[in-house]
Fold this protein.
Amino acid sequence: MTDIVSDGLAVTRPATLAEGSSDGPGPTSSQSNYTAPNLTIEGRNGTTYAYRRFGRAGAVPVLFLQHFRGNLDNWDAALVDDIAAEREVILMDSSGVGLSTGTTPHTVIELARDALAFIDALGVTLIDVVGFSIGGCIAQEVVLLRPYLVRRLVLAGTGPRGGRGYHPWAPQIRAMANQDVQDARHILYLFFTTSPASQAKGQEFVGRIFTREEGRDVTPALTARDAQGEALLEWAVPDFGQLARLAAITQPTLVANGDSDRMIPTPNSYLLAGHIPDARLVIYPDAGHGFLFQFPHEFAAEVNRFLNEDPAAG
């Protein structure tokens, strides 16, 4: 790793990146997001949540909170399987998303309460959280609402409440993100840069998320899209006074993004890392919002290092 300083904030850039590269049972280490069964559990709010839980038991489990319009199948197995090799992975569909029942909340704080209802149903009392995009906004609220629940936090391609540059999205981004029926073209535009290298990695990612054949999740309904869109808009209204809230996130936090995120612009990652007391920032070159899918193995290694750190050694 190489440390650089930007605007007084220490930023870590990866030094080397690979070229080419009903209530159910507990986690199973041999499973993958390609094969893990779809499980269900009922929350106190009446939602029957769909989820997958697999990986290596024994350590604190990791809850993944998904991006705008994403479902269980949109988690890249190249990323989550690498993390599952070292700890339990829990993937969930929020209320009204994919195979989960219920109605999708229209604010981030209610989406966070929705996630807490799922966590409580599982009976988990200590977790690590990886939040991507709107999932990262939800993760921040989960930590603020239930600070004793979360041990470590990973915020990927996301921003703070009241941040900059994503209220509203630019017209072309909004058109691509809100398209009623999306395909590879929309994913490549929204998640990857225009460089041939990034686009090639995007094509590989698209292939991976359609590899699973049995037990695929259901494409989220347009009502879920609209509710999540409203939640993100309300969250993103510019208000730098809201940044003071981040001081209450005292958990060790890994903030990561690509250097060219067009959905939640990269400066928002700097804001997060600059205002969360115990945060570090990793920026991936020639990468956009989907940097974690462009560099899945590298980011998984970064996450595993971070989650496995001994706090006494710091």
Notes: The chain has one domain: 2-313.
